[in-house]
Specification:
binds adenosine monophosphate, alpha+beta, five-stranded antiparallel sheet, HIT family, subunit A, 118 residues
Amino acid sequence: MTEETLFSKIIDKSLPSDMVYQDDLVTAFRDINPAAPTHILIVPNRIIPTVDDVQDSDEATMGRMLRVARDLAREEGIAESGYRLIINCREHGRQEVPHLHMHLLGGRDLGFMVAREK
Ligand code: AMP
């Protein structure tokens, strides 16, 4: 069995969070340290450490994450102005929590996608 993660404890509600959505495949909650007016994390309920660990059988879950992102963006009122979805992977992606998660960020101009090296 895969070990618990910070996010699996949020998913099973043993840790508190500002949860905005949950279904059989995914959970969404507000980031504790928001980088934009809307900053929501969309997480698979199954513990998948990184994008590199996604299995072919997770395809429905990956699709659900995008559909939920679309719906939450509409609910947050940022669908028209636009937003960014980010999934960080491992060291170079600066992934901090080893439970796959998609950031939904919006509510302001987010600037360039990636800081360029000078
Ligand atoms: P990443 O760098 O992609 O792994 O992002 C991890 C994100 O998790 C960061 O934006 C953190 O602010 C966020 N985070 C860490 N702990 C919590 C928590 N208990 N509840 C909500 N968000 C959290």
